[in-house]
Amino acid sequence: MKTNSVLEKVLANGNLAVTSECGPPRGAVPEKVKEKGQLLAGFVDAVNVTDNQTAMVRMSSLGASILLRQMGLNPLLQMVTRDRNRLAMQSEILSAYAHGIDTMLCLSGDHPHFGDHPMAASVHDIDSIQLIQMVKTMRDEGRFQGGAEIENPPKMFIGAAANPFADPFELRVMRLAKKVAAGVDFIQTQCIYNIPKFEKWMEGVRNRGLHEKCYILAGVTPMKSAGMARYMKNKVPGMDVPDDVVARMAAKPKEEQAQEGVDICIETIQRLSQVEGVAGFHIMAIEWEKIVPEIVERAGLLPRPQVA
Amino acid sequence: MEKFEPVIVAFCCHYCAYTAADMAGSQRLDYPPNVKIIRVPCSGKVDAIHILKAFERGADGVYVAGCLEGDCHFKNGNLKAEKQVQYLRKSLDEIGIGGDRLEMVFMSAGMGEFFARKAKEMTEKIRELGPSPVHTQLEQQARQKAS
Amino acid sequence: MSYQLDNKPDNRVLVVGGGMGGIRTMLDLAESGHSVVLVDSARSIGGLMTQLDRTFPTNNCDLCTLSPHLSQSGRQERIELLTMTQITGMEGERGAFSVTVKTAPRYIDMEKCTACGECFKHFPDCVRFTPGLDHRAPTCMRYPQAIPQAYSVDMAACKDLQALVDICPAKAIVPDDTEKTRTIECGSIVLAPGAEVFDPKGLDYLGYSSQPDIVTSLEYERILSASGPTSGQLVRPSDKKQPQKIAWIQCIGSRGIQKGAQSYCSSACCMFALKEAMVTKERFQDSIEATIFYMDMRTFGKDYELYLQQAKERFGVRLVRCRPHSVVHKQGAQGLEIQYLPEGQAQQVCEEFDMVVLSTGFLVGQQTREMANILGIDLDSHGFAKTGSFTPVATSKPGIYVAGLFESPKDIPETMVQGSAAACMAAGDLSAKGILSGQEEEFPPERDISGEEPRVGVFLCDCGENIGGVLDVQKLADYAQSLPGVVVAQSVGHGCSSQSMERITSIVESEKLNRVVIGGCSPRTHEKRFQDTIRKAGLNPYLLEMANIRDQITWVHAAEPELAAKKAQSLIRMAVGAAKMARPLADSTLPMNKNALVVGGGVAGMTTALELARHGHKVYLAERSAKLGGNAAKLRKTLEGEDVRAFVNGLVEKVKASENISVITGAIIVDHSGIPGMFKTGMQVGPQMFYRQVEHGVTVLATGALGNHPDQYLLGKSDSVITQLEMDSLIEDKPEKVKSWSNVVMIQCVGSRSPENPNCSRICCQAAVKNALRIVEINPDARVFVLYRDMRTFGLSEDYYQEARQKGVFFVRYSQDAPPKVDQGQDGCVKVVFNEPVIGADLEVEADCLCLSTGLVADDENNEDLALIFKLPRTKDGFFLEDHVKLRPVDLPVPGFFVAGTAHSPKNIRDSIAQAQAAASRARTMLAANEISTGAAVAKVDGQKCAACLICVRACPFGVPFINAEGYSQIDPARCRGCGVCAAACPAKAIQLMQFEDDRILAKLESLFERMVA
Amino acid sequence: MITAERKPLKEIMDYIQPFNRILLVGCNECVTVCSAGGRKEVGLLSSALQSAFLSAGKSIEIKEHTLERQCDPEYVEEIVGMMDGVDAVVSMACGCGVQEMARRYKNKPVFPAVNTKFMGASERQGVWAERCQGCGNCLLGITGGICPIARCSKQLMNGPCGGSTNGKCEISKEVDCAWQLIWDRLKMLGQEDRYLDIIPAKDWRTAGGGGPRKIVREDLAG
C-alpha cells in the first residue's frame, strides 16, 4: 500500500470501487455539505469534493472535505491548477493531509470563461500532469517541488481525470499514459454515454497495459430529463451523448424521464462491469445526490466492502 | 430661425456614381443643392480620414457612392468602401456626431434617377437629424468672432 | 496625346448596324487608327443586347466592360454615327466603295437638343424616347457624346406643331427637317445589322395573341428589368399578381417546329431560358417554380454546361424534355394549361401554369435582305449572308464582311469575335495600311513651375443657356476673382469651342498662370480636351481642375437659383483649393514594340500571324512541335464538305512565304517578363534546346487543345472502335472499308459532360452528323446509329442533322444514368446494347465500327506551364480564361494577351479562324499606338514612410505592389490601374495616388467649409 | 510583432480633458503594421478628438507626428523641438513606446492611446492572433512549432484538456485547440513519440517571475 486511503484498499482488494461527488455550497453553510454527506454515507468508498467547479466560487474543496472527514466519510480532495500556484497547492495538500485526507484528484479545471468570474486571472503555474508529479514527489521522495525536504510527507492516493471522448481521440490513450508515467494511481473518467467509444478507448488502454498500472473508475451521470441530455450533448465541451440516448430519454413522458435516466445509468454500470480494466465507478449525480443509493443498490454494488 | 440647410459631401466613384450624377444632370432630375460631390477613381479610394475630416470641418452628412456589387471597375473596391463606412459609423457614434450621418450607397452608371433620389433622401434625413454638433459649434464660434 | 485625324476614304470603313457586333467592329477599327462611319436604321444604337436585364453566364449587366477608357483619347474623332439611316445604293469595289445612304428626319436638331425631356413630357403621343431599354445602357457605353440623344418626333402624330416647337427651351425642334441623302466613300464595308425575333402571333395553339400571360422571352426580360414597364416587379400582365409557376417553351420559331418557323437552331435560346429561370429563382427562391420544356438542351458554349448544372442543382429549375402540344386558357380558370407528353410515357399530361414564356428564335429581317440585294451579296436559303468554311466573315463580294446574327444565329461572345474578325478583314482592304498615320500634336516645352506660388486662372463656361440660363456666370467669375491665389477669372462662353480654348491658352501664357480651373461640364467627357488646352500653353496637363457646374448644378438645381449660385461658389472654391495642390505629373510613356509573339502554329496561330503580318507587323510564330499545322492537319473535311488538308497546306505555304513571319518550331517557352507593349519571352528551341529570347508588344496564345482519348467503350482495345477524328480520315482514305459495313454505331459525349470533364466539347455533334452523312453517301445500305444525350447541332448545322435523319440515320437518345453497353462481338465486331426510349426496349447491335465522339480537352500540361509563365488564369477544365466571357472573349485578363482557337475552348475550324482574325484585330488596337502610356493616376510609395506591412500587397485587386529588395513596397506604374485602394488602406500613409493625393482631396474639403466657418 | 488596439475615444478624452495643446505621436513599427497607431491612425484620432471636443464646445490644438520607432531614445529625441507649447503627449505606440516617451519627456504628461495586446502574427488582412508570451524559455522545439503557453487557454504543457472538440478550444469555436494543432503537426513530422515526454513544471523566472527582465549583450553594451 502506498497510502492509507480506503479507496486504494478497496481497489487493491479487487473490489469494484464506487465513488460519488459532493459539490460544496456557494455560501458558508456547512449544513449543506453534511446533508449531502449523509445521503452518501455507506454507499460509496470515497466522496469527490469539487474545487470551484465550473469556475464558480464555492466553499473550498479543502474546507468541505474537512467537514466530511469529521463526519467519518472519506473525502476525495479535488484540486485544480487554475486557481493557485504551486506554493498554495502544496500548502493545501499539507493541510488536507493534516486533517486526515489522503486521497486527491489532480485537475487543470474548467476555464474561468464559463464561470462567474470570467475576469479572473488563470494561474496555471503548472498543469494537471505536473501536479501529479508534484504530489508524487511529495509522497515518495518527501520533498517539495522546489527540492526542500518535507517533515511528515503527505501520503496521497493520487487520482486524475480522463476524458475518452474529447478530441483528438487518438491522443486520449497516450494522454492517460502520460498521467501514468507521471505517477497517477487511479483515474476517474468523464461521464460515459457512448459505450462503444469508451470500449474502444479501453482497448487502447489495455494494449498499452495501462489498466495494470492504474485503476480506472468509469464515470456515469444519471440524466434527469431529455432536456438535460440535449444540453449535455450540445453545450458541454468534451461530452459525447449519442443521439439514441437522447431519443430514448425523449421517448418517455416528462414525468418518467428521470427514472429512464437512472435506468440508463444502471445499465451502463452493468455493461461496463464486464469491460476488462474497469476497476470501479464514479457516479456524478450533479445536485441529485439522493439518487446515488438507489443506483448503487440496483447496480448490485452493495454492500460496500469494509476495509481496515 | 431660417430653414436648416445641411452640407452633405458625396464621395463618388468615377465609373459609376459620378457618371450617374452626370446622368441625373443630363436627364434634368432635380435634387437638393446641399449635396457636394468629390470625385474619386474608386469608392475604395475614399480614405477614412477624408470622411472624418469632412465632419471635422462641419459636414452634416457624408455618403460614399460606389458601383453596384459585382460591377466595380476595380473588382471589389466598392465592398472595401462599404466595410470602411460601417467601421466609421461606429467611430462617429463614439465621437458624438452619430453614425447615422454616414452612408454607403451603390449605383450603376445609368442610375441617374436613383442618384437624384438618394441625394434627396439623404438631404431629408440629415435635415431631420439637424446640424451636426460640430457644425453647430463652428457656427457659434464664427458668430462670436464676428461680434 | 492626340492624333491628327486621318479621315480619308481609303482609310475609312462603313459599318452597318449599331448592335454589339457593329460597335465592336467600330471600336476595333477606330482604335487601330482607321476611321469609321456607323449607320443604323434605329433611332439610337445598342441593338438587342441593351434590352437585356442581365446576361448569362455572369448574370450581371456587363455592358460597361465593352469600351472602357473610350473617352480618354481623341479616338472618337475617328467615328461618325448616323442613326435613322439606311443604305440606298452602292457602287465601286473593294478598296473604293461609294455608298449612298438616306437619313430619315428626326425633327430635332441634335446640336441644340439638351435631352431635357420637356417635349416628351408634354407630347408623349408624338415624341419618341428610346434611350436603349436598359437603365444602364446609355452611359455604360462610356461614350455619351457620341450616342445620339434618344429623342425623335413622329410628325404624323403631332396635332399642335407650334405648341411642340414652343415647349422646347433649347429651340431644337425643327418641323421642316427633311430626309437627307449622302454618299460615303470607303475602302470596305462590314455588315452587322443583327436579326429580328420570331413573332409567335400566328401560332394560335400557343395563344400568344389572346393571352396576356403568355409572353416572349424578350418581353419577360423587360418584366424582370428594373427599368422595364413594371419597374422590375415580377407580375403577370393579366392581374398584376406575382406568378407562382412559370413555364418556358423552347424552339419557338426555330428548328422547323411550328408553322412559319425557321429550320435552323437559334443557338442562344436554351441559355437564355436557363438564365431567365435562374434569375427568377434567385430572386424569388421557392416561391416560384420554373419549368423549361425543351427538345435538346443546347448549352454548348464555354462553361455553359456548368451553368446548366447550376440551374438544375443549385436553383432547382425543372427541365422537361418534350414539346408541349398546346397552351390553353380554360374558361374561368386562373392559369394557363400546358398539354404535353412526357418522355417515355403514353399518357398526355395537363399542367397549369401562371405564366408562359415563349423562347423565340432569330430570323433575318426584310430590311436586311433588301440591303443585301442593294449590295449584291449572296444569301443562303434562310437569308443569312453566305460565307465559306475558311472565310467565316467574308461575304460573297470582296471587300464586304459580315458579323453577328446576319452571318448565322449565335450568342453574344461569337458576335463579339466576329465583330473583331470583320474589323481585321475590313482593315486589310484599306490602302492606307493601318498604323496611325497621324502625327503627334506639337506642344511647346513644358514650363517648370517649381518654386512658384500658385497663380490660378478660373475660366467659366456658360455652355449657352445650359449654365448661363441658371447662373449669372459673370457674377460667379467676380466671386472667383476674390479667392486667394486666383489671378484671372473670366467667363468664356462655350469653353470647349476652339475660339475659347485659344483664348484660355493665350491667357495662361500672358498671365503666367500655373494652375487652371474650368467651371463647366463633366471631367469625364472634357478633362482631356482642357488638359490639351493648357498643355498648348506650356503647362503640365495635370495642373487642371474642373468644377462640374453644369451637370451638378444648373441642370439639376434650376428651380432654386439662389442655392444654385451658392453651390456654384462652393464648387469653384473647392476646385481652386484643389488646383493649388495640383502637381505636374508625367504620363510615363515607353516606346511600343510593334512585334507580336504568336504561340502555337495550328490554324488559329497561323491565321493570326498572317493577318498581323499583312498589316506590317513582325510576327514570331512559336510552335512546340517540329512542324506547323496543329490538329487541323489531321482533319479532312468540314461539315460543309470543304477540303481541310488543302486549306492547311495552303496556310503553311503562306506563312513560310511571309517575310514578316519568323517561324520558330520546336520552341518551348521558358520565361517571360516586361509590361504590355514591351514583353520579352525566352524559349528553348530545337533538339539542342538553344535559348532564344524575342521582344514583342503583344502575345497571342493559340496553343490548341488535345483530342480526348478516354479509356471507355474498348477504345484502344478493339480495332473496330475509333474516334470521330479517325473516322474522318478513314472515310476519305478507305471508302471500300466503309462500303463493307452493315452497322455503324456512334456514341456521343464520350469523355464529355461527365463528372471528370463536365463541359460539352461543342464540336462532336456536328462531327457525328458530318461523318454519318458521308457514310450513308458511300454506303446507303449501312445502318448508322447515333446514340446521343442532347443533339447540339446549333445554328445552321441543324439543317445537316435534319438531313441525316431524313437519310435514315438513327438518332437514339440515352441518359447519363443508363449509358450504352459495349462488348467484344463476333468477327471483330463490337456488340452495343442500348435502350431505345421510344419503343422502351433494349436493342443490341453488332457494329462493324463503333465510333466515339470524344471531343477535345485542354492540353493541361502545356497550358499549366504557359499559365504560370505568363501569369494567366485558366478555367477549371484547363482552358485559358478570357477577360470577360461575354464581351471580351478574345482578350485575356492580362493586358497585351489574346487567345484564339481551341486554346480558348473546343470549337471547329471556322470558329477558330474567326477568333484568330479577331485576335489579330484586338492585337492591332494595341500595336497601333507608338507609345505605351502608363498614365499618371498611379499609386506612388514613399519608401521612407513605408513600414513594409504588406497591407497594400494584400489590398491591391490586381496584385501589383510587392516588397522590394530595399524592404519597402514598390508599385509598378505600368501595371497600376489607379484605383487608389492601396493608398486608402496604407496605415503609414506612405502611398499617394497621383491626381487624387490626400492633400488635394482635403483641400477640397477645407475649401468647401471655408466660408461657413469664417 | 507587438499588436495593439485603439482605446475607446472617451478614455483618451478623459486623459487630455485638462489640456489644450496636445502632441499626438505615432510609431511606424508594429502598431503601424497592425493598423493601431501609424501615421494614418494618428490622423484619424486627431480628427476624431477635434470633432469630439468641438462638439462638446471645447477647442483644442493637436500636433501630429509619427516616429520611426518610439522604443528607441534616438528617435524619441527627434521631437524635442516640438515639445515647446505642448501641454500633454498622447502616444499611439505600444506600452514600450509610451514609457520611452515618458522617460524622455519627464515634465510632460504622456498618455497611451492604444491598448497593447500581445505578440502575434497576422493571419490575414485585418486579423492578428496571439502567438507568443515571451516566457523566456522557448518550448517550440518540442511542441511541433506551436506554443501551448500562448495558444492553449489553460497553458497546458502536456496535452489537451477534456474540452477539446473538433479541433477547437472549449472556450470558443473561434479558437483552435493548440494541442490539436501540436498533435497534427507532430504526426505530420512523424514525431508522435515526442508527445509522450512529460514536460516538467516550468521555471517562470525567465517569464518575468524573476522580476523585470533585461537582456545585456556584453559585446554590444556600451
The class by helix and strand makeup of chain D works out as alpha/beta
Q: Tell me the fraction of residues in β-strands of chain D, as a range.
A: 15-25%
Number of strands of chain D: 9
In this structure, how is the largest beta sheet of chain D organized? 4 strands, parallel
Instruction: Give the helix tally of chain D.
Output: 7
Name the helicity range of chain A.
Answer: 40-55%
Walk me through the structure.
- The complex is a heterotetramer of chains A (308), B (147), C (1014) and D (222).
- Chain A has one domain (6-298): TIM Barrel (Alpha-Beta Barrel), CATH 3.20.20.
- Helix content of chain A is 41%, strand content 15%.
- Chain A has helices at 6-12, 30-40, 61-70, 86-98, 128-141, 169-182, 195-207, 226-235, 243-250, 254-273, 292-298, and strands at residues 17-22, 46-49, 75-80, 103-107, 157-162, 186-191, 215-220, 278-283.
- An eight-stranded parallel beta barrel of chain A has the order 1-2-3-4-5-6-7-8, surrounded by six helices.
- In chain A, helix 8 packs antiparallel against helix 9 and helix 9 (243-250) packs across helix 10 (254-273).
- The relative contact order of chain A is 0.14.
- By secondary structure, chain B is an alpha/beta fold.
- Chain B has one domain: Rossmann fold, CATH 3.40.50.
- Helices cover 48% and strands 16% of the residues of chain B.
- Chain B is built from five helices and four strands, in the order βαβαβαβαα.
- Chain B has helices spanning 17-26, 48-56, 77-95, 112-129, 133-146, and strands at 8-13, 35-40, 61-66, 102-106.
- Chain B has a four-stranded parallel beta sheet with strand order 2-1-3-4, sandwiched between helices.
- With 1014 residues, chain C is α/β, with parallel strands linked by helices.
- Chain C has seven domains: 1-104 and 180-195 and 364-435, FAD/NAD(P)-binding domain, CATH 3.50.50; 105-178, 2-Layer Sandwich (Alpha-Beta Plaits), CATH 3.30.70; 196-362, FAD/NAD(P)-binding domain, CATH 3.50.50; 456-581, 3-Layer(aba) Sandwich (Rossmann fold), CATH 3.40.50; 596-706 and 858-927, FAD/NAD(P)-binding domain; 709-854, FAD/NAD(P)-binding domain, CATH 3.50.50; 939-993, Alpha-Beta Plaits, CATH 3.30.70.
- In chain C, the strands form 15 sheets. A five-stranded parallel beta sheet of chain C has the order 3-2-1-9-20, with helices on one face.
- Chain D has 222 residues and is α/β, with parallel strands linked by helices.
- Helices cover 27% and strands 23% of the residues of chain D.
- Chain D contains seven helices and nine strands; from the N terminus they run E-H-E-H-H-E-H-E-H-E-E-E-H-E-E-H.
- In chain D, the strands form three sheets. Chain D has a four-stranded parallel beta sheet, sandwiched between helices. A three-stranded antiparallel beta sheet of chain D has the order 1-6-7. In chain D, strands 8-9 form a two-stranded antiparallel ribbon.
- In chain D, strand 6 (114-124) and strand 7 (127-132) form a beta hairpin.
- The mean pLDDT of chain D is 95.
- Classes of the chains: A alpha/beta (308), B alpha/beta (147), C alpha/beta (1014), D alpha/beta (222).
- Chains in contact: A-D, B-C, B-D, C-D.
- Chains B and C meet through helix 1, strand 2, helix 2, helix 3 and helix 4 of B and helix 3, helix 14, helix 15, helix 25 and helix 26 of C.
